[in-house]
């Protein structure tokens, strides 16, 4: 495992959490909420300075940060307290953290594509020996896969992922000469074929992948597609967890993420030296950034999504009773949610350690 890549991913992970909290901080200031402290890092203070009503601090451990707003999770008589602001202002503040993570992920993807180029496009370049009969389905060399079983295909990796999840009969739409062509349901069974190295493999028999020339427009478009792709990956992972397709043993916490990051960084370094390590770590960080954005918006207490849910619940309560919901009750729910979240993190961390050894 590459030590440099582990150090980098820890720093990037801390950076992503700090960026998240910075989003809350900026939105709180704009919305007129009093911020008692904004901290970069966690643990003991290394440096602090009070400016206006806010204490700005730098703390010892570079693993995140926090934005402590007045009246957050507790009642306060201060008219500038978070809980005393209009619902739409609290929503803006709560969404701002996830938005900053998503924006960071998009910027990182744009940097990666500007330096390393866009991913390979899902263009059919031919058929494997013994699978030439695929041409009878209507699929032709030069076709770009547009969707598989209704799932939009942006890049080559998408095609591999959704073909892996598909059955032997696949609904396929392609782009041919710039026009969408619906091929309907075609037979693409796995079969024993011989690859270019002479090995016997179980494949569907399609050669895919073609690089395109990047322009500023295609870079921006592919950056957005990659960001959307990462969001979809998170939702697919959550769906697999809910349906039981994957179990708790397949989940990873910070320890597992760092371990994977080490492998990713090492693979990049072996492939293309420091440049490869840098690109792989940036790509992994972009994925984590967008993962954090999506996960933080889930309606779970102690996450931003849970707070957003409370804003709506509080609004409905106020509409019915003409009274404001006491913040301390929301604080109790948050505390229980936080305890459950920490318990889950501990279980996942133990599982990560077991998998490492």
Automatic annotation (TrEMBL):
Domain of life: Bacteria
Annotated PDZ domain residues: 123-178
Subcellular location: Membrane
Signal sequence annotation: none
Record-level Gene Ontology MF annotations: metalloendopeptidase activity
Membrane-spanning ranges: 6-27, 91-116, 241-262, 274-294, 300-320, 332-354
Main localization of the protein described in the UniProt heading: membrane
GO biological process, one term: proteolysis
A GO-annotated cellular component: membrane
One Pfam family recorded for the sequence: Peptidase_M50
Gene3D superfamilies recorded: 2.30.42.10
PROSITE patterns tied to this protein: PDZ
Keyword line: Hydrolase, Membrane, Metalloprotease, Protease, Transmembrane, Transmembrane helix, Zinc
Cofactor(s) for this UniProt protein: Zn(2+)
Membrane topology: Multi-pass membrane protein
Family of this protein: Belongs to the peptidase M50B family.
The name this protein goes by in its record: Site-2 protease family protein
Lineage: Bacteria, Bacillati, Bacillota, Clostridia, Eubacteriales
